[in-house]
Design goal:
By secondary structure, the chain is of the alpha/beta class. It folds into two domains: 1-43; 48-192, Glutaredoxin (3-Layer(aba) Sandwich), CATH 3.40.30.10. Helices cover 46% and strands 18% of the residues. It is built from five helices and seven strands. The chain has helices at 3-43, 93-108, 122-132, 147-151, 178-192; strands at 64-66, 72-74, 83-89, 113-119, 138-141, 159-163, 169-174. The strands form two sheets. Strands 5-4-3-6-7 form a five-stranded mixed sheet. It has a two-stranded antiparallel sheet with strand order 1-2. Helix 2 links the parallel strand 3 and strand 4. The radius of gyration is 23 Å and the shape is elongated. This is Thioredoxin domain-containing protein. Pfam families: AhpC-TSA. One of its GO terms (molecular function) is oxidoreductase activity. Residues 54-186 form the Thioredoxin domain.
């Protein structure tokens, strides 16, 4: 075997080895993503027959969850005012893009109570509040507490309900821009008339 053949063989073997490593790394990452999706589905399960959330004019189910300071809030605590109730997840990339939009929207919406139910640990949600400087309640939905997502039939995140002053759902949908949030409020106002 000539010297050039040895070099070529070595390069070919090296390339095959690197490709093998890359494929193994890709397999591991896909497995991690699959596990993250399964965890999200535990909190906000998607039922093929109920993939659009609760119906308009349905009474919003009550819940009790802690905020990032450990104080417990119920939906009932906010009755008498219009509520924008959002569902998000610390691991959701769309939620991460939506947070600054929600913060900006909240500063313009003084006549609206915003409440965000965030899947994550208390510490993760405290970091979220600090990072985003939210001035509205962020309620923590920790592992093992998937009933609220099921009761609200949350099809994914970021998903929002607008709830009127008497506790009925008047608008709903996915939103990740201020314009989407404004549209949900506009639809609620139309449905209330």
């Amino acid at each position: 075997m000539t010297e050039k053949s040895k070099i070529f063989t070595s390069m070919l073997m090296g390339t095959i080895f690197l490709l093998f490593i890359a494929i193994a790394g890709l397999f591991i990452r896909v497995n991690q993503l699959q596990n993250q999706i399964l965890v999200l589905m535990e909190y906000f399960p998607v039922d093929a027959g109920q993939n659009s959330g609760l119906s308009i004019d349905t009474n919003a189910p009550d819940f009790t969850l802690p905020n990032t300071d450990g104080k417990y809030f119920s939906l009932h605590d906010f009755l008498g005012q219009k509520i924008l109730l959002g569902f998000s997840s610390i691991d959701c990339p769309y939620c991460k893009k939506m947070y600054p939009e929600l913060r900006s929207f909240s500063k313009k919406s003084s006549n609206l109570q915003i409440v965000l139910i965030s899947r994550g640990t208390l510490k993760e949600n405290q970091e979220l509040v600090q990072e985003q400087q939210f001035n509205f309640p962020i309620l923590t939905l920790e592992q093992g507490n998937s009933e609220i997502g099921k009761n609200f039939q949350v099809p994914g995140t970021p998903f929002f309900y607008v709830i009127d002053e008497v506790g009925k759902i008047c608008s709903k949908g996915f939103a990740n821009t201020e314009e989407h949030l404004e549209e949900l409020i506009r639809k609620c106002n139309q449905n209330s008339n």
